[in-house]
Every structure is written in C-alpha cells, then in structure tokens.
Amino acid sequence: MHDYLDDYKTILNIIMTVPYAVIATTGKNGNPWNTPVHVAIDDQFNFYWASTKNSVHSLNIQDNTNVFIVVFDSSDSLYEGKGLYIQGIAREITDNDELEFSKECMRKTISPEKLVRSSKPFISKRKMFIAEPTQLWINDAVFTEEGRLVEDFRRQIDIKKLVDYKKQNP
C-alpha cells in the first residue's frame, strides 16, 4: 500500500514554495486557454488569484466554471520534480467578507517590499477569483535500477485527508 504521508508533505512543500499556478479554462467556442497566475492557497486548498476583468480566462470562467490548475517548480531537474494537479470549480468572488479573506490570503504571499513596488495590487480593474478543488493529484514515476524512466503517472489524493493532515501539521 502506498504511503500517502510523503505525498502530503510534498504537496505542502509545493504550495509553500511555488507562488504561481497555471490555470486552464475553456471558452464558449471550446478552445482551451492556459494562463500563469500568482496564487494564494487557503487551508481548504482553495486557490485565489486576481485577474483583469477582460482577460480571456476571466471571461471563460463566466461561461464555464470548470478549471484545471497545475502547480510545479520549473527549476526541478528532469524527472525529479513533483507537480500538483487540481480539477476545480472557479468563480469570481463577489461577497465582501470572502473578498477581504481572499485579499488577505494574497497579501500573505507577497513580501512587504514587493507589495510596495506592486502599486496597490488590489486597487485596479482586476477581479478576485477562487477555484474550489473537486479532485487533486500528484505526479509520480517508476524508474529502472539504472535510473531510466519506465512510467510516469498521477496518483489521486483524498482532499479531505489532505486538509486533515495540514490541520494536524501546521
């Protein structure tokens, strides 16, 4: 049986060290769109980001709330990196309390010196979005004794168990 504790530790490391995610959306015409964004992630593994009101992915989310998110460290060596794959439902945040919470989550990911240089990141024509995860995976691989890749695959992670693990290991 697989030891998921290592996966949980890896996932927490990824979300604590990688500030960007790639969000895939689909428009009315069925065309896919992929966008890198700066994200914040709360204790329930909800993803938050700010985007301009007329960006392609923002408009796509108005028409189709299904998103797919990937978080990975692009500096990892070939075949050694881990990635987090999230299927979720996204929406614009309109509730004032939820909006303040999302902004606070984002502020925690920005150092004070960058916050000053970023020219008031939340006073703009941008909207705040949330993606609530419905499924989550982490990648893994099998290698020969010589280190040759045999197979790479995704392993599904139970989100509730991951949330519980994070609560017990802050």
From TrEMBL:
InterPro entries linked to this entry: Pyridox_Oxase_N (IPR011576), Split_barrel_FMN-bd (IPR012349)
Domain Pyridoxamine 5'-phosphate oxidase N-terminal, residue spans: 15-102
Protein origin, superkingdom: Bacteria
Protein name as it appears in the record: Pyridoxamine 5'-phosphate oxidase family protein
